[in-house]
Every structure is written in structure tokens, then in C-alpha cells.
Amino acid sequence: MSSASVTTITQITVEDIRFPTSKELHGSDAMSPNPDFSSAYVILHTDNPLLEGHGHSFTLGRGTEIICTAIKAHAYLLIGHTLEEFISNPGAFWRHLTSDSQLRWIGPEKGAIHLALAAIVNALWDLYAKREGKPLWRLISDFTPEQFLKCIDFRYISDVIKPDEALNMLKELESTKSKRIRQLEEQGYPAYIMSAGWLGYSDEKVRLGRDLQDDIRRLKIVREEIGYDRRLMIDANQVWDVDQAIQWVKQLAEFRPYWIEEPTSPDDILGHARISQALRPYNIGVATGEHGMNRILFKQMLQTNALQFCQIDACRLGGVNEILAVLLLAAKFHVPICPHGGGAGLSELVQHLSMIDFIVVSGTWENGITEYSDHLHEHFEDPCIIKNGRYVAPNKPGYSTQIKENSRQQYSFPNGPMWKIHS
Amino acid sequence: MSSASVTTITQITVEDIRFPTSKELHGSDAMSPNPDFSSAYVILHTDNPLLEGHGHSFTLGRGTEIICTAIKAHAYLLIGHTLEEFISNPGAFWRHLTSDSQLRWIGPEKGAIHLALAAIVNALWDLYAKREGKPLWRLISDFTPEQFLKCIDFRYISDVIKPDEALNMLKELESTKSKRIRQLEEQGYPAYIMSAGWLGYSDEKVRLGRDLQDDIRRLKIVREEIGYDRRLMIDANQVWDVDQAIQWVKQLAEFRPYWIEEPTSPDDILGHARISQALRPYNIGVATGEHGMNRILFKQMLQTNALQFCQIDACRLGGVNEILAVLLLAAKFHVPICPHGGGAGLSELVQHLSMIDFIVVSGTWENGITEYSDHLHEHFEDPCIIKNGRYVAPNKPGYSTQIKENSRQQYSFPNGPMWKIHS
Fold first, then answer.
1. Are B265 and A59 inside 8 Å of each other by CB?
2. Model ipTM?
3. Of B113, B244, B303, which is closest to A270 when you measure between CB atoms?
4. Which of B36, B67, B101, B297 to mutate to test the interface with A (most CBs of A within 10 A)?
5. What cofactor(s) does the depicted protein rely on (chains A, B) (predicted)?
6. 3-state secondary structure of B240
7. Pairing relation of β-strands B52-59 and A285-288?
């Protein structure tokens, strides 16, 4: 980066893009029988016409306009600010974006306003990585430990992880970093294809939480199909209360599920802790986090041993900065990162995050499972590539966030041509 | 209620109403130095031109448009439905409103979408109470325990309170209910005026969390002024991390604060539990909840003894139904309800809630402190009335939610005449 050049954010555009996936039952589950995978999409324009940052927040269709409105509400915190301001202290800029005294009331740091923040912060990192000519995973892998820490707002997590401790963790892995970068570039990062577990495809796929006898019948079929050597995950999509979750899953223990995902409300830290404890004798872990609202929730989930698999969502946590905070917290508690990858454009993002975790933060991919969903990649400028069940390390500059202009026009809601056809 | 009549919701209108209070420093605090007290306002129109339900969600200004967008997103869950549907099973209708499979993603049950829900649910209860010709507190006080329970969605709280247990709690207080109604009507409900503690008024008022030496100086002045017989509350508005909160408040212990309010992130259950435990030897309680996002958070706060004063917010929890759930949880743990009353129209709402708690749920007002803020009441059709430091029980039908039409027009944002003057 040349110190002479300054890039100023001059304008933002916000788009509501929806793919009518409900027609095809992609991604349906007990709580979301008919999602339309969608993006609240933002472009940060700069005074350099060749340099734009693109970011999106994933949604299920209705309500995308709420996130779009929330993104626009942040415009005045962005326009006129420079990329160099962000680069010089990404954590401070992140705090600037989360600290508007009036907007804060309608969070703080959760729900629509935080999903909007994610889109914006993703776009800032896309801009930064493009400017540096690096894919995001590599940009951050090349940071010094000190630079990495500057990305993080330690507010509200310093009781569990302090900057000093984090610095030591990062420094310990620094000398072996280049070895892992090579390893990643040669082998790719292990991916897990989630679609098989989703409801609605056909009778032999796993579904959970509606009817116990039916769940038993289905898991039996799946185990007969895949045997007991392969891992089988089960997902309840929050349908149970705490006691019910424990009773239900115990009755599925004979099928040796590797984890139970989202057994109850994503906000219930103590509930997840109780479920984890009850299922430990059965060797069934608890996975949660795709609805995990912020670092403060993850901090407590980890403090109480409430989750054994940490399912960060790239667009629900407040963008890359907050993700890095959660990676550090999870590494401290030796809990593997298993990002949520279902949905439009999430696989593109989470590959970068898992790679950063492997190279810089946890130093391992041993138990990390990074979800991959095989939908809608054709709409992305830099789609993720899977080879032999592994994510190939991206090499184009940016955060793989950019949706093709033609797709954005076609699927623009409610007036794009694809919605005229479907309506 | 006559069984012959059916009232159908035909239309909703949504308004963005903002009072330019930042010009006068009403309600400023460490996190919100310059709020414009505002309302995301909804009117439920029915096929009976004489019957409308009004509801609002309180905000601090910027971002009100996000809540308005979120309210509109719920329109299709309301229009064509009948008031009788709501009345016959308010808890089921509440779940209907919170369970849209696509909207749920951008919560669930938190942030902008939940603030929008509050406005809608408040309007439904206003409609119901008007139809019955009763003020809300009286409508609900007249419910049988069974009717009361039907208002509550026990999802995600049944591990801590089950309907049976709640029923017993309510039944125990039933025989003495009429005595408390009389007592309330004669004496009113004790109010606490918060304005004195807010920042920005003048030098002698309490402010906290910015500079320790300054806090000590100020508390000294206040104690010299009011003596040690009166209660003094201190409020940090979330500025501290957990360790810092403990250290800071210990150094203020000599001034015998009754409670420390919002010492850290409102999402940090375990953090509040640690702070509570550390301050117990000093006889300083922890108060929190005005940013408490839903019943699942309050459940855990109560489970861990993280708060000693439960500060529910009438427009942040998902309206009356979820408030009733939290009242039950608090009563179970013998924690007093101290609702958040600062802001436009909140005092009008919380008086009803405190009265319901007193008459039906906890049966006591012993340690309950209901905040009263003396601003903006002139804009309300049925403003709350304080006599001798106590809320007079409202007697007009409804939930005291309705803002005068003239005020709504004057303060409509951004095009109302008052905003033309201020801009």
C-alpha cells in the first residue's frame, strides 16, 4: 500500500436481491419450510472508479428490505471516510460503526442492525483486500499478530480474553504459519456438504424434531445407507425446549450422531450448557451458532461449555472483525470452528474464515468442519471451488462477496425480471 | 364481549414520529449523548370505524425507519385476521406473529424485528382493551389464571417455569386480588423519577462511568444533598467490561448506591452474575433489562441471580404477552419488577405493567420501583398522572398508547412541520 494514495468512500448503493429458492425447496428446515435465499447487498463506491467494496448479508427472503433500510442508516458513518482510516485501525473503525448513539438502541449489536453491519464490514474488507491485490484469507494471514489484534474490539470480552493473552496465542503459531499456508494451498480445506441433511429433498434424507418415531425410522435408514464409519450430524433447528431436547436426542443415541445442531433457542446459553452436559455420556456434541448474535453470546457459550462445535455465521456476526474475536475465543477453549455455509454466498465467505482460523488462530483443521452448500454459486464473480471434498484456497483479490451484475439485475426484488416471472 | 360481533383487521398504517429532544438534552447518558425520543408507530384499522388499535415502539431517533419497515413486513400476518382470533388465544396469535419462517432469520425474537413486534402487539392489546371498555391493567387483572396463561408462549422457558407451576402461582394470589385492586385505586402505584440521574442537565446530577474521580466527587455532592435515607441509584449505561465494573463500583460503595444499572453489555448474563456476586457484600444490587432482548435472556439472568432488579422495557420485549412471561419468571425468583420508564410514552405503558404485576403476579409493590419520566406526556391522549409520587390507576379504555393526531402530524419525520423548523 502506497502511503501517498488515499481512497475515500463517496457513496453507497444498497440492493435487495432474492433468489426464488422456495420453489425448489433448497435449504428448507423445520423452522424455515420455504426460504428464498436472499442478500441485502451493499456496494461501497470510492473516488477510485476501479475500486469498489461489495458486501452482503444473507437472509431468507421476507425482511431483506429491513436489512437494506438498516444498511442505509449507516451511510453517514461511511461516506467521506477513507479506506486508510479503516486500514490503520480496523477495530476502532468497527467500534465507530457500532457506536452510533441513536442506532445503538435498536440493537445493540444484534438483529437487523447487526446483520446490516455485517454487510458493510464485509464490503470494507473486500475493498481492503482488493486494494492489496490479495484474497481476504491471505491478507489476514499475512498480518503480524499486532496487526491482527488491531482488528478486534475487545469491549465486553476482556473478562475472558485479554489482548495480551491473544497476542501470545497468535505469536505461538507465527513460526509455523508459512508451513500451513503451503499445506492449505496444496491440499485445500476440508468441506462438509450439508444438503443431504436438509428437509424436503426426498424421503431418505435426515429430518429431525417433528416426530420422534419418524426420526428413528429415518436415522435407521441413513445409518444403513452410510454405515457407522461416516459422521452423521442431526439438526433440530431450534424446535425443542431444553428438557425435550435432552429426552429426544437420548432416544436417538443408538444412531451415534456426531452432533445435535441447534437443539433449542440460539439465545439459551444455560440451556445449551445443560443439553451438552446431559449428552456428554452419549458422546454427542452440541453445535450451535448460525443464529448466534454476537461475540458476547459466543463468549458465554464457550465459558459454560455449552457448545462443542462453534458454528459462526459470516453475515450474522458483525463482519470479519467480530469473527476474528470469536475465532480467538474458540481457540482459547479448544472448540473447533464449523462455520455455517448454507445459503447464498455463505460458502464463499466461510472458506476464507476457516482458512484464517487454520493458518493464524487455532493452527489446526483437525475437528473443524466447514459446511458447503452447492447452490447459487453461478451468481458469484469468484465462486468457491471444491476439489476432492475440499475448498480450494481462493486466489482472486477480495472477499469473494461480489455477485455478478447481471444476476443482481435479474433477481432484484421486487422488480427484477426473475420476480416478474415467479409472481 | 358479544359473541355475535367479529372485528377484522383491514389495514395498518405506520408512522415515523420523532421529537427533537436532542436539542434539550432530555435523556442523555454515556452511550446516548443526544437522543431524539421517537416512536415507530402503528395503527391497526378494523372494519369497525370506531375501533382502532394504536401501538408504538420507542427509539432514540435514527433507525426509527428500520422499525417502521419491520412493522410493515408483518402486515400480511395481521390483515384479514380478527380481533376474536387474538382474544381467543393471545399466546397462539403471538407465536403466529413471531414464527414467520423468513422473517425469523433476522431475529429470531430480538433487535429491530422484535421492537416492531412490540409495537404491533401493543396495538393489539390496545384494540382488545378498547373493545372491552377497560384500561389494560384492569382487563388483565380481571382474567382468570387460565386466561392469563393463554397469553403466554412458554416456548424456550418451560425448563424454568411450566404452565402448571405458573397456574399455581396465579391461583394463590387470586383470592386477594380484589383487595389489591382497591388498594391500587385508592393509593396509586409508587413511581420513581429518573430524570435527576440523567447526564447533561447540570453539574450536580449523577453521571457515571467516564471518570472515577469525577464520579466520586459527584456522588459525594448528591449524598450531601439528599442524605443517606433516600435511595440513590447509579447507572453506567453499559460502558464497562466486567472486571472494570466490579472495580469501579467497589470504589463507590461508600456512597451506598441502591443499585448499579447496566454495568456492562446487556447480553452478558454470566458477566452480570459475576458483578452481582462481587457487589453482594457491599449491599449493591444489579439492575438491568432496558436492553434485555427477550424472555430467554431474562430467564437466564434470573437463573444465575445476575440481576436483583428486573428492568423490563415495554417496547423491547415483544409486547404485553412476553412481558407477562417475564413477570412470572421474576415472581418465581422473587426479583422485583422495575420497568424502564424513560422515553416517549414508556411511562404510559409501564404503569399498566407494574399494576398487573402487583395485582396478579407478584402480589407486592414492596421493592418494585417504576420509573417515571416527566417528558412529552402532552402528546398522549391518555397521559399518565402522578399524584404524591404515585401513578394514578388509568381508567380510560386501552393501553394508553395513543399519540394525539396533531402531535403525530407535527412531529412526523422527516416532513412534519416541527422537523422543518429544526432542520
1. no
2. 0.95
3. B303
4. B101
5. Mg(2+)
6. coil
7. unpaired
Cβ-Cβ contacts under 8 Å, A62 against chain B = 73, 100, 102-103
Mean pLDDT of A91-101: 97
How many CB contacts within 8 angstroms connect chain A with chain B?
191
Question: What is the chain B residue with the closest CA to A269?
Answer: B300
The band of B175, judged by pLDDT with boundaries at 50, 70 and 90, is very high
Residues B318-330: tens digit of each pLDDT: 999 999 999 999 9
- pLDDT for A367 equals 81
pLDDT over 60 (residue B63): yes
Angle, helices B295-303/B319-332, rounded to nearest 10 degrees: 10
Interchain contact, A270 vs B304, CB within 8 Å? yes
Minimal C-alpha gap between A127 and chain B (Å): 25
Chain B CA closest to residue A299: B268
Contact B296 A265 (CB under 8 A): yes
- Out of B59, B100, B110, closest to residue A105 by CB: B59
Contact indicator for A366, A338 with CB cutoff of 8 Å: no
pLDDT of residue B276: 98
Domains of chain A (ranges; CATH) run: 8-152 (3.30.390.10), 173-401 (3.20.20.120)
CA-based torsion, B410, B414, B417, B420: positive or negative = positive
> B270 to chain A: which residues are within 8 Å by CB?
269, 300, 303-304
B102, B109, B266 ranked by CB distance to A60: nearest: B102
The span from the CA of B382 to the CA of B402, in Å, is 7
* CA distances, A125 to each of A43, A72, A300, B288 (Å): 12, 18, 27, 35
Mind listing the pLDDT tens digit for each residue in A1-31?
444 589 999 999 999 999 998 876 556 666 6
Straight-line distance from the first to the last Cα atom of chain B, in angstroms, rounded to the nearest whole number: 48
Block residue for cell numbers 434539550: B24
Helix, strand, or coil here: A47? Answer: coil
DSSP state of A398: B
Alpha-carbon gap: B264 to the closest alpha carbon of chain A (Å): 7
In Å, how far are A107, B7, B77, B90 from B94, measured between CA atoms? 22, 18, 11, 6
Contact A65, B74 (CB under 8 A): no
Mutate to test the interface with A, among B106, B157, B162, B272 (most CBs of A within 10 A): B106
Residue B268 has its nearest CB partner, among A105, A154, A300, at A300
Distance from the A324 Cα atom to the nearest Cα atom in chain B, whole angstroms: 19
Sequence-ordered list of residues with C-beta below 8 angstroms from that of A213, at least 6 positions apart, any chain: none
Q: Is the pTM above the cut of 0.90?
A: yes
Element (H, E) at A390: strand A390-391
Q: What is the 3-state secondary structure (H, E, C) of B63-90?
A: CHHHHHHHHHHCHHHCCCCEHHHHHHCH
Half-sphere exposure of B33 (CA within 13 A, CB side): 4
B138 Cα to chain A: minimum distance (Å): 30
- Per-residue pLDDT reduced to its tens digit, A295-334: 999 999 999 999 999 999 999 999 999 999 999 999 999 9
What is the C-alpha separation between B206 and A37, in angstroms, rounded? 49
Q: Which residues are paired to A8 by β-bridges?
A: A82
Residue A26, H or E segment: none
pLDDT at A366: 86
